[in-house]
Amino acid sequence: MQKGPCYWYASNEERVATNSRPALWIVAPRSQVMKTQTSQKVLEQVRSALDGPCGVPDGARVLVAWSGGPDSTVLAWACLELAKRERIHPVLVHVHHGLRAQSDAEVQHVRRLATQMGSTVHIAYLHMQPGSGTQARARKLRYTTFQEIAAEQGCSHIFTGHTFDDQAETALMRVLRGTGIRGVRGVLRKGDDGRARPLLDVRREQIDAVLQELGVPAVRDPSNHDMRYLRTRIRHKTLPELESFEPGITNRLVALTQEAQQLWPRLSASIEDIQTNRPLSVHDLLNLPALTHGPLLERWLNTTVARQHVEAIVDFAARNPVPGSSISTAGAHTIFRLGEFLIAGPRSGEPDIAQQFEHLVPLGVERLKNCTPPARYLRSKWTAFSEGYNRRVSERFRKIGVPPMLRRHWPVLVDPSGRKKICGEPGVPFPEGMFNMYDMFLCH
User: Fold this and answer.
1) Burial letters for 213-230: b for 16+ Cβ neighbours within 10 Å, e otherwise?
2) d(CA 69, CA 49)
3) Of 162, 161, 163, 171, nearest to 249 (Cα)?
4) 113 inside domain
5) Domain termination site, one of 346, 371, 391
6) What is the pLDDT of residue 137?
């Protein structure tokens, strides 16, 4: 079982002694550290980003994610330079994933370089096991760790070293995977989670030039040359080839992300009033402009939905299929048509009870209906469902008209005493027949 991340402050002592320089280090010629033309320009670009789109106030304490690679090393250097003017107060953090043989050498490297730059670095050690989806798991754990350390250190922002070229690669990669307008936005200069990217206006050749000018060493991650990854192929093959016969394609891709970022707030506002915490109205979906279908479905399903899945769901809704019919798409979801509504259920037929009932449908009539029913409706709470324990589940579903295709996904209330008895399900009326859970769900 994977353990949670742990971290502690680095010291000037090396964790593992070594007599030779690791092969993965790319060391620029040693020279007196002085700000020359390129480094001055990059420093000004970072300062402008903090003053403008990143929205970082003067004197802010910020966490700088430092892998030891070229981009994050230039970011760390720029932040330390700005700290001399008390523009910001950076906290350098390096994550040791323990997944590569070079991880220990990288820790030594950032410790040594931090000392040379007159600073210290915090080292976060993660306990990870190799396996499928390792990069995605490592990225998720890494950002979780950054957030924990930022909270502990009182940092208002988390800086990462994404560059102009990274943005172009992200846009092209997402387009190839069928993203919608939300994905075309690329990485944001400032995220809702406190992340900020001060280097998004800086080109990769500028990064290399700054390292050369300052004589600052950096490490190179071998996975950045592993052609099994789509981003790597885009970086080293696809984009260079596109630039060879269509110069400026990188600039145009970044311009596309900026246009999408400007358009996104208006698209989000256009679907703000549509209820997405309940079955989705087919009328609402089909009467929206096509450009908003993707954002609406992503908000409804709470996951990224590729363009082909968006088109499939919209087509399914427009065909007015037989009630109870379904389409398996959108990742782990199965979409059902029930009357004038679409219902999303898990493909496996195993509803996620914890999420559905603890978060989306909290117990309590007031919360389900989103209003206060007359007091007489509430006097028996859920005890009205105690009748009919001995009926077969299929008979109960048939009686209330649940289509066979929905029965595997239909939520029920189960007696928590361990007797494995169903207390109630949507569609079963209270004794007076005044209303039922399904009515409450649809008028939410």
Assistant:
1) bbebbbbeeeeeeeeeee
2) 21
3) 171
4) yes
5) 346
6) 85
- The predicted-structure confidence for 134-186, as pLDDT tens digits, reads as follows 778 888 899 999 999 999 999 999 999 999 999 999 999 999 998 889 999 99
Inter-CA distances, 168 with 191, 288, 307, Å: 18, 30, 20
Task: Please give the span between the terminal C-alpha atoms of the chain, in angstroms, as a whole number.
Answer: 41
Polymer length of the chain: 444
H or E element that contains 411: none
Please choose, from the candidates 223, 224, 222, 219, the residue with its C-alpha nearest in 3D space to the C-alpha of residue 105: 219
Radius of gyration of the chain (CA): 27
User: Tokens representing 135?
Assistant: 């990069």
| Crossing angle (nearest 10°) for helices 164-176 and 249-270 | 70
Beta strand 6-9 pairing with 121-125: antiparallel
Segment 21-27 long-range contacts (CB within 8 Å, at least 24 positions apart): 22/102, 22/105, 22/109, 24/102, 24/105, 24/106, 24/219, 24/220, 24/222, 25/105, 25/109, 25/217, 25/218, 25/219, 25/220, 26/70, 26/217, 26/218, 26/219, 26/220, 27/217
Question: Domain ends where: 346, 367, 402?
Answer: 346
- Do residues 57 and 132 share a domain? yes
Q: In which element (H, E) is residue 435 found?
A: none
Whether the CB-CB separation of 12 and 108 falls below 8 Å is answered with no
Digit-coded pLDDT (tens) for 404-442? 666 666 666 655 555 555 555 544 443 433 334 433 333
